[in-house]
Amino acid sequence: MKKHNFNAGPCVLPKPVIESGIEAIKNFDGTGIGILEISHRTPGWERIMKETEELWKELLNIPEGYRVIFLGGGASTQFLYVPYNLMGKKAAYLQTGVWAKKATKEAKLFGEVDIVASSEDKTYSYIPKNYTIPADASYFHITTNNTIYGTEIHTDMDCPVHLVADMSSDILSRPVDVSKYALIYGGAQKNVGPAGVTFVIVREDILGKTDRPLPTMIDYRTHLKDSSMFNTPPVFSIFVMHETLKWIKELGGLEAMYKINKEKAELLYNEIDRNKMFVGTAAKEDRSLMNICFVMAEGYKDKEAEFMEFAKSKGMVGIKGHRSVGGFRASTYNACPIESVKALVECMQEFESKH
């Protein structure tokens, strides 16, 4: 039976990328040595590192003055890096979910944190609007896509202070005006590769402005100076990222990717809205294109376990909602094929016909 992978992360990878990764494990760059065994100082690897940064710059049309670095530790470690490097006395945060709340917690270790707005009052089911960003904040931090609750900030806002964004789960799903951001970061394991590497896109001139002493490994400038190779980088994860970026480019870049992602999301949201057994949980204007969350409708709540088993029998994998909210979640990241979304829609329709 064909499996349809809707896991929220680590998630589905493009099949050509998996094949490239398998080949590289056997023999990297014609060296006769697998990528898991090579020195990161070999010319072939240095070329991959350079190409990976160039692919990021090309796909996102990153302006001059920005660099892309690749770090370990996951996006959660960036909750620490960001205030350590950028925060003076005060920073502002938009609280739109669990990860945004965790980022806020870390920032409070370094100074005053102004939570300009929060959607916690309605279980993070919407993106707050009409808030004021304090002009005396060192930066304003947002989480652009909320994987657990299925909400997303769909536009690149104008901001009176440095704008910092955690784009772990929607990066490269649409074109982004990078010039509006001072720093963008995220874990790779949603749209750009496997777990193990974190990308950071940073405008170089914002660094080195705080008075606090920075430990070597926490200082972004360390990794900029040594092109992400101050210490041994997560080689295999970066290689798979490199291949994923090539795959996106071959598809036609971010405009083409965005069109595909909108089509997938529209297909599934239309079925959720049509089907009497299901209801979406996120405010319609803030619905995520990446994480589509829904629950059983009133009168059918006792059918949740039954639908889950039915969906599994049809090859659906990873559609159980996050343990903190329950229900269902289909993560339709870049590499999730539209055929899988169509299969899930058919599964929902078949279940409806049985009841």
Radius of gyration: 21 Å
- Helical element count? 9
Distance between the termini: 25 Å
Report the order of strands and helices. EHHEHEHEEEEEEEHHHEEHEEH
Low-confidence stretches: none
CATH topology grouping of the largest domain: Aspartate Aminotransferase, domain 2
Taking strands numbered 1, 2, ... along the chain, how are they ordered across the largest sheet? 2-10-9-8-5-3-4
Tell me the overall shape: globular
Q: Write the CATH architecture name of the largest domain.
A: 3-Layer(aba) Sandwich
Compose a concise summary of this entry.
The chain is α/β, with parallel strands linked by helices and 355 residues long. The chain contains 9 helices and 14 strands.
Draw up the topology in text.
Layout: E1 4-5, H1 15-26, H2 43-60, E2 66-71, H3 74-86, E3 90-95, H4 98-107, E4 112-118, E5 139-143, E6 145-146, E7 151-152, E8 162-166, E9 183-187, E10 198-203, H5 220-225, H6 235-251, H7 253-274, E11 278-280, E12 291-296, H8 304-313, E13 316-317, E14 328-331, H9 338-353
Helix pairs in contact: 1-6, 2-6, 3-4, 6-7, 7-9
How would you describe what is shown here?
There is one protein chain. With about 350 residues, the chain is α/β, with parallel strands linked by helices. It has helices at about 15-25, 45-60, 75-85, 100-105, 220-225, 235-250, 255-275, 305-315, 340-355, and strands at about 5, 65-70, 90-95, 110-120, 140-145, 145, 150, 160-165, 185, 200-205, 280, 290-295, 315, 330. A seven-stranded mixed β-sheet has the order 2-10-9-8-5-3-4, sandwiched between helices. Helix 4 (about 100-105) links the parallel strand 3 and strand 4 (about 110-120). About 45% of the residues are buried. The mean pLDDT is about 95.
